[in-house]
Amino acid sequence: MDQKIIYLDYAATTPPAHEVVEHMMLGLNTVWGNASSEHMYGYAANHYVEESLQTISKFLGVEQSCLTLTNGATESINLALKGVMRAQTAKKHMIAITTEHKATLNTAQALAQEGFDVTFLAPNENGQITAEMFEAAITPETALMTSLWVNNETGDVYDIPALSEVARKHKVLLHVDATQALPHFKIDLSLVDLASFTAHKIYGPKGIGVLYKRDFPKIPMAQVLDGAKTELGNHVGTLANHQIMGLARAVKLLSSHYGKEQTQNEQRLEYLMKALSPFGVTRNGKENQLMPAIINIHVPDVYGETLMAAVPYLCFSRGSACNSDETLPSHVLTELGYSNKHARESVRISLGRNLLEYDFKRAVNDLVKSIDQLQRIAHAERGENVLPAIHVKGDINLKLLDRFNFQENNAFELKRDDVELSIKALVQEDQVAKLSIGLQGSPYILWFMNEAANLLRQQPLETWVNFRMNQVCETMETPQNELRLVMIIEKFIRDCGSAMKEG
Asked: CA-to-CA distance for 306 and 143, rounded, in angstroms?
């Protein structure tokens, strides 16, 4: 690949700052002793860990005793939610929102399976989560309410000050996932009772996070992890000196970047949307405030994975990197009221500190070209250089079924200069019972359709409607001169499925 790779996925993770790496090397090479050991190596490690924890607590404006070191935001969230709820003797109810990160959703669902009462608040008709909705859901049994501070997929900023007022009014604990907030603005932990975040979103190392828990009045919490406790950082197990030092250095760098990055991201957001708006591209998100660094866009008639395949050297995503089922549309977007089709036609671009202005503008320019081409394909327009020339032709009739007693009730044809494709299908009870395909195209296209037919035959129509090329082949394995044609066939199959379903 001769194109320069441009990273546009800072919401997934950030590259460690070089100052962070240098400080971590000190922890690995020199300060490697066990911080709990009573000898010189232990004392040296203890000194650096203590210094690091002081740096972190000072930046956050809290006492060091309020911090628990974890292996990341997911563990922090688990400790907070499970710790609070399992410590309850009377109150067994908690409130969460359906647009949460899976770390919170899955933890809340696990608590529900344990017998706790969990209310999941879905966005209102405007796609928003309000303090009034939380207040209406509170009962005398409510012990805890939890929310994102900034949505990891859309950049929606939730009204934490208003949620704090509700929590204080009803004497309910408030936990926030501050993972996507801390990289972009100074968070006020006096508003909340518990907060979770991780280092690798703020140009620090992976494998370390923090749980904040206010120390007064004391919050009863059940122990979730068993093991030897350290005196530093309320941590179970041996302290990872280099990671703690890396986290501290990453936190120390934040303040100097906040204002500059906010202004820069706002300008880049404006530039991006101005360039893409002629193609009907809009930004997803429903709250009153959207973080400019996290940009979730809808590209009409272009599936997210198709756009990503067209510009593989641009590193962006279809949503959360932690979503285990990539075949499904984003649960965040569908919960906000967007259709499945809309969600599948959406991608997330997230901006960060290391993105050069020249690279950003080049990325925008390449996105413009690719979206233009892909929309032309989707609209069956033959523009100049949109489709590659295919020089090798072949003929095939895929004999995938017994032709006896076959009566077609659906027939579809795709005829272009470079491919002829016909599909005849017999549908019984929303399932393709029999299938016949005629095809003329290059050897690769013949292979692709043969594999696709094996997948689609005798399958529910939903399989056709949701068909994607990567169910048959990896994008990287598709010859570049065949990729766009495969995309056309992919959409043709989905359209056939939709037509059969409607018919």
From this structure: 45
d(CA 162, CA 174): 11
Q: Clarify whether residues 196 and 285 are in a common domain.
A: no
Q: What average pLDDT does the segment 59-67 reach?
A: 96
pTM beyond 0.90: the answer is: no
Least Cα distance to 201 among 101, 274, 281, 134 occurs for 101
389 lies in some domain: no
Quick one: tokens of 186? Answer: 């100074």
Beta carbons within 8 Å of 114's beta carbon, 6+ residues apart: none
Four-point Cα dihedral 211, 317, 499, 427, nearest 10: -70
Residue 191: what residue type? Answer: L
Are 429 and 302 part of one and the same domain?
no
List the helix and strand counts (H, then E) for the chain. Answer: 14, 16
Q: Do 236 and 344 sit in the same domain of this protein?
A: no
Tell me the residue range of the domain where 412 lies. Answer: 394-502
Which run of H or E residues covers position 415?
A: strand 410-415
First to last CA, the chain: 45
CA distance 56 to 40: 25
Structure tokens at 332: 């965040």
pLDDT in tens, 247-259: 999 999 999 999 9
Q: If you average pLDDT over every residue of the chain, what do you get?
A: 88
Which strands make up the sheet holding 410-415, listed edge to edge?
394-398, 431-441, 420-428, 410-415
Q: Are residues 237 and 311 in the same domain?
A: no
Are 161 and 129 in contact by the 8 Å Cβ rule? The answer is: no
* The pLDDT value given to residue 354: 96
Beta-bridge partners for 398: 437
In the block, tokens 């950003």 appear at 360
The pLDDT tens digits of the residues spanning 257-305 come to 999 999 999 999 999 999 999 999 999 999 999 999 999 999 998 889 8
- Active centre residues (catalytic): 322
What local confidence, expressed as pLDDT, does residue 233 receive?
Answer: 54
Residue 335 shares a structural domain with residue 431: no
Least confident of 121-135, 341-355, 384-398: 384-398
Tokens coding 129: 């989560």
Number of C-beta neighbours around residue 119 at 10 A = 19
Query: Within 13 Å, how many C-alpha atoms sit on residue 158's CB side?
Result: 30
